[in-house]
Amino acid sequence: MSQTQSPEVDFVDTASRPETRGIELIDDAERHGRARDLFFIWAAPNVSILNLTIGATLILLGLEVWQSIAVIVAASLLWVFPGIIAGSGPASGTSGSVVTRAMYGILGNKLFVAFVGWFIGAVFLSLTWLASSFMGADLLRRAGMDDPVWVPIGVTLVVATVTVLVAIFGHGLILRAYPYMAAALFIIFLLVAAFILPTVDWQYAAPEPLSGAALWSSMTIGFTILASTPLSFINSPDIARYLPRTSKPSQIAAATALGGAVPFIVFTSVGVLLATGLSVAAFDAGIDVALLDLLPAWLGPVLVIGVVINTIALNAMTTYTSSMALQAIGFRLRRIPAAIIVGVVGTALTIYLVLSSSLLEAANLMLQFLVIVSGPAMAIFVVDVLMRRYAYDGVELFDDHAGGRFWYTAGWSIPGLTALLLGGLATALCLATNVWVGPIAEATGFIDLSVPVGMLVAGGLYAGLQRTALGRQGRP
């Protein structure tokens, strides 16, 4: 069977049965939906406990409330990038993990998807499952089930199973269910925010106000942590690929970017406000535990339900797209078995983390390291989309023979891979974390410029090399 064909002649994208289609091309006759539908699909995963957690981190970094909000707004602007690349889905009729063959070559893309796509997917699967595991286990502990090992493992297994089931049913269920999930999550988290507000210290001032290099260090480190979320969604074409080919890229970009950015700003800011009323002991116990302590007894379980819904929304999307990444790598798997494999790997990593770290530690460290791969990869994707003006031929993307349009140099795109490697190196040199401080970050007083420098190096190199003979091989 050719990858350009659907595995079922009578395929229908519906919420009532599992989606068997993977990376196969979607015919124009099967396209449906409106660009604006993407708003709620992206809103549901981003009404998140993880946003509350990383918002609280900004206060821990020593920032004032207004400084924290400024960093959040600056980072939210990066949501325009997943919006821009989302239009490549309906333009090509296939997933983003296939579209990137235009950037890295037929063989080079296998390496890119195997490392970058899977790394990003594994991080977010584990972090969001970790959040629901911690909060679910703490709620059960309060009810008398206090086994420190098997309770969080049990919560992880239950949530992971439901998540994989949603991913198996795929795009049709996501399109149908996510608007309702987004509405429920908005109500739950706004209710939680209402009970948080009385605890907020509206006169809050940092114990030791920062200035100069120390202030810029905290603001840039916070920006890097926040930037990792929008920059990680190089899977946005997968969700948009069923839209009609005539859908306007500008409308796709607006719906995707706003769907991600609005809840990102609102609930990360709520995390900042929450942190102003917490003691050092509360931080040490964990944001998840502290939050449950602040709420009335009846609202705690409602919040945990909200966290679980959000976890399923985000991780079902991640599992769904990661299953297609497995196919793009070259594994002879149908999408459903691939989704199950992704779920098993993510569950195993989550169980390891839930037994060995706190949510705050895991989130901050993993999100900072994530930008080493996600920033340069996003920059290259955006540059390629803009240079091609969304001119992606799905049939040519599946031509994996020597001499095909995207075969480049023995199957490898020198411009794409060079830009990715050097962009990642530049990011690492400018990164400042608890376990790694790049020499440039150290020389500047721990100012973390990893995101802008890495993206500028990767995007600039790629644009320049694409104008050489090496890049023109794959141009229209």
Give an overview in words.
The chain is about 70% helix and about 0% strand. The longest helix has about 35 residues, at about 105-140. Helix 1 (about 40-45) packs across helix 10. The protein is mainly α and about 475 residues long. It has helices at about 40-45, 50-60, 65-75, 80-85, 90, 95-100, 100-105, 105-140, 150-170, 170-195, 210-230, 235-240, 250-275, 280-285, 285-295, 300-330, 335-355, 360-390, 395, 415-430, 440-445, 450-465, 470. The protein has a domain at about 35-360: Orthogonal Bundle (Hydantoin permease).
Short description:
The protein has helices at 38-46, 49-60, 65-76, 80-86, 88-92, 96-99, 101-104, 106-142, 150-169, 171-196, 212-231, 236-240, 249-276, 280-285, 287-294, 299-329, 335-354, 359-388, 394-397, 414-430, 439-443, 450-466, 469-472. The protein has 23 helices and no strands. The chain has a domain at 35-362: Hydantoin permease.
Features:
mainly alpha; globular; 476 residues; single chain; 23 helices; Hydantoin permease
Number of strands: 0
Please mark out the parts with pLDDT under 50 across 5 or more consecutive residues, or reply none: 5-9
Radius of gyration using CA atoms only = 22 Å
User: What is the second-level CATH architecture of the domain at 35-362?
Assistant: Orthogonal Bundle
Largest sheet: none
CATH superfamily of the domain at 35-362: Hydantoin permease
- Helices and strands: which structural class? mainly alpha
User: From the structure provided, what is the oligomeric state, counting identical versus distinct chains?
Assistant: single chain
Distance between the termini: 28 Å
**Number of helical stretches of at least 4 residues:** 23
The mean pLDDT is: 87
CATH fold node name of the domain at 35-362:
Hydantoin permease
